[in-house]
Amino acid sequence: MKIHYLAWLAKATGLLLCMATHWAAAQTPNNCQPAPADVAQIVVIRPRFHTVSGPLANFDPCHKSVQLKVPSRWNGTPLPVKPPLVIIAHGGGGLGALEMNLAAALQKNDIATLVFDAYQLNGFYQGYPFWGSQATNESRQRMIYKAAKGAYEWALTQSDKIDTSSIFLQGVSNGAAVVANLASVVSPDHVKAVIPEGLPGMGIGLPDNVAVPIRLVFGKLDNYGGKHQEDWMWQRQDSCRVNRSPGPEVPAGNAGRCNGRQNPTDLTEKPIDWMNRLKAQKADIDVWFYDNAAHGIFQGPIDRKMLTYGTDNVTFSWTGSDPSAKEKMLADLVKLIKNPPTQP
Q1: Cα 300 vs. chain centroid, distance in angstroms?
Q2: What pLDDT, in 10s, does the model give residues 137-164?
Q3: Residue 11, φ and ψ in degrees, nearest 5
Q4: Which CATH superfamily is domain 42-338 in?
Q5: What's the rounded Cα separation, in Å, for the pair 331 and 68?
């Protein structure tokens, strides 16, 4: 009898622990916006390298890649107060382990998260092997930007689940360029800070003005896409030809002065120089550097890999970090979210 009781107790304890770490997902929304029949198409630029042409899909809260997860008590009841929300804009390879790892870590700290896959919203399911190295930055950023802006606008309708006056935007790599641009158009009444991680300076460019605080994040070993081992992301420049001449959907920024038509032989602005330019304009912007970390701090262990873009552009593309960097970044994020910067 005692053995059976102990077995029952162990089973019950395990069930309670499982319930304590359960995160309640949002209910299925009723305002679906599936991609139209004439949605964007992939266009070949050269062998194994592509852009995207045509109308882009709106954010669809009913899409299977969209996950709004709201933390709750161990028994599934709501928290005493509605939690803040972090919207995570994925990197160039699409929604993957990096974003899900970060979301899970934030959820454990009573922070709601919203993730999505902008490529899948547009009907593209090629996955990381394609999107990670066979598409232009501008095409990937345009899709992520429209989806992320729509995610933010949809999140404002979820006041029954989250604190819509405490929203944060976090993006990795191409997603970092997206949230940096969104910092120019979101409302300070709702968004308390934007956290671009591993920010590139090329694609849709970077905005000339921002409306909310920004905290850049870089691993000190971030050479992703670099031409040599110490081609650090925050100091990276490339030909203006890699920038897309901006359309009305993207905030005014440096890509308007540096693209394939305007000053094509010049170089793009370094991300760190962009930060200093905005800081000189009295913007609330700063940078956090992390030791023992490369590109995509929550990707996993450090992977000192090479990546080939197209057929022959071989680059240094180190990713991941040591556990100490993940712990430090998470602590910094939680502190920022729990005690956001004071806005004028």
Answers
A1: 16
A2: 999 999 999 999 999 999 999 999 999 9
A3: -65, -45
A4: Alpha/Beta hydrolase fold, catalytic domain (3.40.50.1820)
A5: 22
